[in-house]
Amino acid sequence: GQQLNQSPQSMFIQEGEDVSMNCTSSSIFNTWLWYKQDPGEGPVLLIALYKAGELTSNGRLTAQFGITRKDSFLNISASIPSDVGIYFCAGHNYGGSQGNLIFGKGTKLSVKP
Amino acid sequence: DSGVTQTPKHLITATGQRVTLRCSPRSGDLSVYWYQQSLDQGLQFLIQYYNGEERAKGNILERFSAQQFPDLHSELNLSSLELGDSALYFCASSPRALTNTGELFFGEGSRLTVL
Q: How far apart are CA B115 and CA B102, in angstroms?
């Protein structure tokens, strides 16, 4: 079945740093989405991208839908402590079989000690 | 608060037992999805229901079953539990059968521990 490769698996941030993570797939998607999961909570949608090449921002978050439709990246600028959590990319195809949404394994963001 | 309610929040049981997890979707949402989240495994899609009917099936074990009732709440039944079934189980909902935007609203999850 379809799989998403998300990297890095984990990273440590220091307040003020910029963060980048990405997601790649062997197959194309019509929509790319980024979700964030806070500890003890369910995932929440951050950004959705609907067109190849699209660049979308949501506050300090910026995400892009790759031209090939097989990848996406998420950038967080000037990170703050509440950015800590797990970020999931998800690919979506209208009418797909797996509940329409395939998730990556997540990038865990932690604060540098 | 996503509007999706899951109970119980935590559950500890023994191998071989059976448990039922319950989900109430957001008001007005007709679709319910179940996901399993284990350590290092991300979110694994189990099954989707739309307006009472099974719509899509993922990697759901035969020991697991689900249903959606006329009032749209859903239950996930896990039987003959094994240690490896310990995980967080999420329910999510969306307004339509095929979420054409990919946006799902997740509950807070039910953490199952099998001892």
A: 36
